[in-house]
Amino acid sequence: MSLKKHLEKAPPFYSWTIQETLYFLSTSLEGLSYSEIHKRQLEFGKNVIHEVKISFWRILLRQFHNVFIYILMVAAAISISIGEWTDSLLIGFLIVLNAVIGFWQELKAYSSIAALKKMTESRNKVMRAGELVWLSSCELIPGDYLILHEGEVVTADVRLIDSAGLIVDESTITGESVPIIKNHETVLAPGALPYELSNTLLAGTTVVRGSGSGVVVKTAGDTYLAGIAQESQEESPDTPLTKALRFFAERYIFVLVGFFIVLGVIGHVQGRHTADLAYILLASLVSAVPEGLPIVVTLVMVVGAMSLSRSQVFVRYLPSVETLGSTTVIASDKTGTITTGKLEVKEYFSFDFLMLQRIAVLCNDAHQEGVGDPLDMALLHWVDDTEKLREESPRKWAYSFDSDLMLMATVNEVEGQELLLVKGAYESLKAKGSPSCDWVSLDKSFQDLLNQGLRVLAFGKTSSVEKDPELWEIDIVGLIGFLDPPKQGVLEAVLSAQKAGIRVIMLTGDHPMTAKAVASQVKIWSEGDPILTGHDVEALSDDELIEALKKTTVLARILPEHKYRVVKLLQSQKEIVAVTGDGVNDVPALKAADLGIAMGNGTEAAKNVAKIVITDNSFRLIVKGISNARVISDNIRKLIYYLVSISFLEVFFIFFVIISSLPLPLAAVQILWINIVAGGVQDKIFVFIKAEGNVMLRRPRAPRKQFFDAKQMISIFSFGLILGLSVFALYVHLLPLYSSKMVSTILFTSIVFAQLANGIQAQKEEEPFFKNIARSFSINPYLFIALALGVTLQGSALYLVPAWFHVEYLPLSLWKYPAILFFTAFFFVEMKKWIEYGLRMRQRAF
């Protein structure tokens, strides 16, 4: 049987004794023989994370698999068929630009695997055939005897054989904010979770202090880190905006096809010439497709992304600008996002405060320059004049941190007397404590600090300076509780998100009590809320976990696979989930989330799969970004209404013309001018619309309802129908009065003016224009510039190049007709808004 199959059938390696480890891997403290090394290299291969190769062409072609792109392609083909090359080139440029942006973003996402690979690339000291050699990490194989020291990156999963004060930073894997003490003698039961593996080193972690040695058990794709990498290869879900536009496009195509079939049948029954009928239908299709929608939506998001960047929120994937505004759940990491990421002294209990501070500084290996254990650094920041204290009480010798005894000690000359100063776990110091200590007060204070979710250290002294810890009898001076405190502004941000109908839940690798302490300070957790742990997540079925998540606000001791599962289950309940994270452990959830948000000081693996990166690592900025993004989403909604309603106006007008057996009065170039040029003036200013009221006082809207709910579709349909009918009535009125060319000129200009009036009204959706005229004028500073430019462009088409547009000189006396259509469009929308406003006020009254 091969070694690989043998290991697959063996119990989990963390449950092995040291002797079983050597036995199962057929190795020794002398390392593997050269013949065995060669054999295992062939069996296990290189110690590198496998990277799935995906064809660049496949990624590029995938960018064109979009219904809206299909519409644009059809529109471009029609434009070419009727000789409008400029329009076809514009649409073609839009299609290519969209593909290039999508291709680049997707290509960047695959670099996350490369970033994970870098975490397991280094040189290691290995015992082979009785000789100590330095090897590239990619050469490691199961059975190698590996020796590690402070500062080294672990590059394989290792069962420890020996350890001396070994402390390891596992934050990028498990999310645990405090370095973990390792003990090679521990034997764990099967089923232990990664953050419980005290006798194991996982690939991707870093040795913070001490030294150790162990046998390599898993390499390459078998490591826990590789499992994270595998999950990160899953494709990210489409953004809500993409889904909503696809939803719209698919149904819009269906409606258009049905509509044009009806028109074709009617035209055929009327006996229209086939070529003329085809021309009419092609022109109708051109008018029905809002060609400018994708490019202006993109422009809205670009300007929104630029606005967010000024707040240190950088958008890596453009559609995520809108996703931020649709978010219904924020699944936030704790360390570095909600908290500062630096431990501080939160509470203390002492019998002698000055001595407690003195021990905190003297029994401490950290330096003010920022070098040292996080707990030691917190103690230095807690005490003033640390250098002066150290000068006054010089160190004579030190007993380095002992992971078995869970303490360290120094001997210092304090006021002319040598004292042994001790710092460590309360239980350890209590075991060596003096009978004269007030144990009742100490026990109560220790429990109080633990109940606050604090990490507690005890401090003591003795005049005995024996080097043998067995001889120490310690007088405990006091206890100190540490906490990674919330960042400034996080509490206000959480409350703002909750008012906006957004659930905030914390997912962390930290201890449940620590997680609860932080979450309660920022109002994520309230009394009575359940707290789920990794073990709970493992034990619950999907249906049970979905029910539990409805009430849970804190999940602690969470692993990457747990976080990923939580995200997927929330999404299965139609939630739009934003996930924050900075470590490798966050990569699967960041990739699976609707919106992955990475911290600026996080790992490259996290930033590569995230759609947004926040440089100052603050939860506050996420909520601020949501507020800005909601305004952007509202502006996209208004833009969709504006462009599609004008398209409907033209379609209904053409429909009435055809069923009335009248000649089509508009030329194809006029239709294109209305859609692309005249409309293109106003649609660009939608990016500058300010917020209508406080957008954070409403619940998130489902993506489809955000852009295409019943209210939106009724507004689009009613405007198109009423104004289409109005233009048709005007056409019927003008036919007997003027020449066909003059009628065409008047109708052409009238539709443009109706469009301009609709653009003014579209700036505000909820409030009538005359309800607050000052706000109507100030909601978009570029509104009337666009109006003036639109009128100027239409005048230029009429008076400077009339032959291009098949029009003739329009006398001043006939401008009354475009003016009538302008005010018809304006006051129709205004009246509709007043009716809706009155109904809302009535509902609120009841």
What number is the mean pLDDT?
85
Look at the helices and sheets and give the structural class. alpha/beta
Q: What's the alpha carbon Rg, rounded to whole Å?
A: 35 Å
Strand content: 5-15%
Largest sheet: 8 strands, mixed
Number of helices: 33
Number of strands: 21
Distance between the termini: 77 Å
**Largest sheet, order of strands side by side?**
8-21-20-19-9-16-18-17
- Poorly predicted regions: none
Indicate the percent of residues in helices: 40-55%
Write down the overall geometry.
Answer: elongated
Question: Brief overview, please?
Answer:
By secondary structure, this protein is an alpha/beta fold.
Structure description:
The chain is α/β, with parallel strands linked by helices. The chain is built from 33 helices and 21 strands. A hairpin with a 2-residue loop joins strand 1 and strand 2. The relative contact order is 0.09. The model has no long low-confidence stretch (mean pLDDT 85).
Protein topology:
Elements: H1 3-9, H2 18-24, H3 34-44, H4 56-62, H5 67-81, H6 85-109, H7 111-119, E1 123-128, E2 131-136, E3 145-149, E4 157-169, H8 171-174, E5 180-181, E6 200-201, E7 206-218, H9 224-231, H10 240-270, H11 274-288, H12 292-309, E8 313-315, H13 320-326, E9 329-332, E10 344-350, H14 353-362, H15 374-382, H16 386-392, E11 395-402, E12 407-414, E13 417-424, H17 426-431, H18 439-451, E14 455-462, E15 475-483, H19 490-499, E16 503-507, H20 512-521, E17 531-533, H21 534-539, H22 542-549, E18 554-556, H23 560-572, E19 577-581, H24 587-592, E20 595-599, H25 604-609, E21 612-614, H26 619-659, H27 668-683, H28 703-708, H29 710-734, H30 740-761, H31 773-778, H32 783-799, H33 816-845
Parallel strand pairs: 9-16, 9-19, 16-18, 17-18, 19-20, 20-21
Antiparallel strand pairs: 1-2, 1-3, 3-7, 4-5, 4-6, 4-7, 8-21, 10-15, 11-12, 12-13, 13-14, 14-15
